[in-house]
Structure prediction request, 332 residues.
Amino acid sequence: MKKEKTHGGKVAIEKNPLFLAFKKKLKSVKKPEKKPKSIPKDRSKIIAVGVWSMIGALVFFAFMAVLLSISNRSALNDLARQQEQNSKQKEEVSIVAGERFLSGFVTEYINVKNERAAAEQRQNTLMKYLVTDDETDQETWFDTSGAQGDRVLKDFVLYNVKKGDGDSLFQYKVNYANVVKIKKKEHKVDKSALLNIPVKHKGDEFAVSGTPYLSEIYDLKADIPSSSEEREEYDGDQSASIKEFLNTFFRKYAEESKDDMSYIMKKPETLNGHLVFGDVENIRIYKDGDGFEVSSVAVFREKETNLPVKERFTLFVVKNSGQYYVNQLKHQ
Prediction:
């Protein structure tokens, strides 16, 4: 009986108008939707790609900088070589121009006539060759007062030029005669000496910068040892055939055309009948890789006079298909 009471009370509550209104209100309230939690994206790949791209760009620009540096350095080296070559060419031209400038000076300086008018004329002419110098009494350089005879130039030739920075010493070998009269009889004494002329130059312009002076002629020949290395000569089983080939080669070299020589030479050349072949002397054979280096003196002769003409050659020879072939010929 008690249990039924309880059930009846529950039914009574559920039918209560206030409870029904509350329940209806409760249903009308919407529960907020649960939003799914966002998962952070994996950006490690993007970062890695960016980093490696930057490294790649840096390596690329560094490589380009090295190439540019090498290119610039090469261009500067080429420019320096060109300037050096131009300087050397200019220097050679300057010697020729200097010799031309001084040719009149040498003639005027060596020739001395024991007459007052001629001495004054000589002095005035020589003064025109000098540098401008207000502090030096240059007129005394060419004073010939007290002379008792004449000096006569026979011939002269440029002997050497010792170069400095803007200053050079031109040395001429001069042959001349001192002429004096003794009891109205003329006596000549032949002499040879070096005439040294200090010169200042600016490009192709020159001026005598000091007093010329005579000195003894020195020898230009020096005992200079050969720089060639000691090498062991080849004396193998091909020695005889190489020597035989040399005779054949130089006979063809003397008589045949370039077209004919193309069969045994890489760069054909020939005397084309200008001389006649005679003999080969001083043959020396050295092993050179797969071939041979052959040094010798070829003796040719003039057709009409039989006059011998000797020349030293170096041939670089290889053997192809059983035949010798000249890869290179050097005139020495």
Summary: Residues 1-6 have pLDDT under 50 and may be disordered. Strands lie at 150-163, 167-182, 185-202, 205-208, 213-215, 276-288, 291-301, 308-320, 323-331. DSSP finds six helices and nine strands in the chain.
